[in-house]
Amino acid sequence: MSPATARRDLDALARQQLLTRTRGGAVAHSVAYDLPIRYKNQQNPDAKAAIAHAASALVPRGAVIGLCGGTTSTAIADALMSRADIMEPAPDPSLTVVTNAINIAMQLAMRPQIKTVVTGGVVHARSYELVGAYTDAVLGSITLDLAFIGVNGIDPVVGPTSHDEREAAVNALMAARATQAVLVADSSKIDKRAFAAIGPRRLFSTVITDAGATQEQLERLSDAGYDVIVA
């Protein structure tokens, strides 16, 4: 079955109210209410899709990358799965993705071209992210070429932040295990501060944002030491 046929079939079932369409798939109505609100009511989807495309372009075939949870990271997984060079048949996986997000792991698991590594840990039900000592143990035993870290806020002074301190700690560790750690943040997150800092600012070399960011915001991020990519 082609991807276009699958999408048409899912859209038809959604019109019959037999399932709810989600980014990258669908959920039967019997479980759709369990989806975290952040995945059902995604804000700024066009900006996040543009950011995801720019992030995917940074990933060479054969790389080992880290993806934290969140809607932007989910969009990056979608973008990676749309790349012909990654999805072409090959005897060995074309990409390795390490993630602490169980929804992203499920999304990638059916693609044999992508080796999917799940960190383990305790599920944070609000976000589908795995956190805790088991998560830390796995991340502490691996190395990554790239890590893409989503945020709830990014301030040029305090750096990236998250609403949840457990997720912030996992994100910081994932970034620390990467040769290059990239922040992915749509323009609505710039100049915002959330509760928990995601490690020291020096962990992150690059910010990918969208065209909604003002020139002043971009300059402040650049002055803070980030390489800024506008998608």
TrEMBL record:
Question: Record's Pfam families?
Answer: DeoRC (PF00455), HTH_DeoR (PF08220)
GO molecular function ontology, one term from the record = DNA-binding transcription factor activity
Keyword Transcription on entry: yes
Q: Which keywords accompany this UniProt record? A: Transcription, Transcription regulation
The highest taxon in the source lineage is: Bacteria
Membrane spanning residue stretches: none
| Identification of the protein by name | DeoR family transcriptional regulator of aga operon
Q: Which InterPro entries match?
A: Carb_Metab_HTH_regulators (IPR050313), DeoR-like_C (IPR014036), DeoR_HTH (IPR001034), NagB/RpiA_transferase-like (IPR037171)
Domain HTH deoR-type per the UniProt entry, residue ranges? 1-28
User: What SMART domains does the record point to?
Assistant: DeoRC
